[in-house]
């Protein structure tokens, strides 16, 4: 059987830093990320599609818009996150200091490298967003720059 896949990319802007990085990636900085989703299915639908491209937009791309775009991604074990929480008056919420800060910072369960972001999107976000669909997210490519990317598959 011929393997057919489809791809759609989405561009977002995020801040992050890589904890423990040997050089400047340990500092707070950001990227204009391009994230490419690849989907596949066992068979095509009656119209000859794996899935309508608009479904990728309304699920996976929309998840990026709602959760990561224009946010600061910090590892939950990043000491900076604890310091920010202290500043905000302890507890899990930043709201005591500044509601915008709470919305701006996203604590993620991994050091936010392109590799870990790609793996999280593939293994966690994809199955959630495409639950109940015959389509599977089979590859995610996260480009930090035009020169540097990571792919999970
Ligand atoms: Zn970076």
For the record, what CATH class of the domain at 5-70 and 112-152 applies? Answer: Alpha Beta
Q: What CATH architecture of the domain at 5-70 and 112-152 would you give?
A: 2-Layer Sandwich
Name the poorly predicted regions.
none
The major sheet is characterized as: 6 strands, mixed
- Listing every helix as H and every strand as E from the N terminus to the C terminus, the arrangement reads EEHEHHEHEE
Give Rg in angstroms: 17 Å
Q: Strand portion, in percent?
A: 25-35%
N-C termini distance: 20 Å
User: What's the helix count?
Assistant: 4
Structural class: alpha/beta
By oligomeric state, this entry counts as single chain
Shape: elongated
Give the proportion of residues in helices.
25-40%
CATH superfamily of the domain at 5-70 and 112-152: 6-pyruvoyl tetrahydropterin synthase/QueD
- Describe the strand arrangement of the main beta sheet, using strand numbers: 4-3-1-2-5-6
Query: How many E strands?
Result: 6
What ions, cofactors and ligands are bound? zinc ion
Mean pLDDT: 90
CATH topology of the domain at 5-70 and 112-152: Tetrahydropterin Synthase, Chain A
């Amino acid at each position: 059987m011929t393997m057919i896949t489809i791809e759609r990319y989405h561009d977002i802007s995020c801040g992050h830093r890589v904890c423990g990085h040997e050089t400047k990636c340990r500092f707070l900085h950001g990227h204009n990320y391009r994230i490419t989703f690849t989907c596949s299915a066992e068979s095509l639908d009656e119209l000859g599609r794996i899935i309508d491209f608009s479904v990728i937009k309304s699920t996976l791309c929309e998840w990026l818009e709602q959760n990561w775009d224009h946010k600061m991604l910090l590892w939950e074990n990043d000491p900076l996150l604890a310091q920010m929480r202290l500043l905000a008056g302890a507890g899990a919420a930043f709201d005591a200091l500044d509601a915008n800060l709470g919305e701006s910072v996203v604590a993620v369960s991994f050091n936010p490298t392109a590799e870990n972001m790609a793996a999280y999107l593939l293994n966690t976000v994809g199955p959630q967003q495409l639950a109940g669909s015959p389509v599977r997210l089979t590859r995610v490519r996260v480009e930090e720059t035009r020169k540097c990317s990571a792919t999970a598959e």
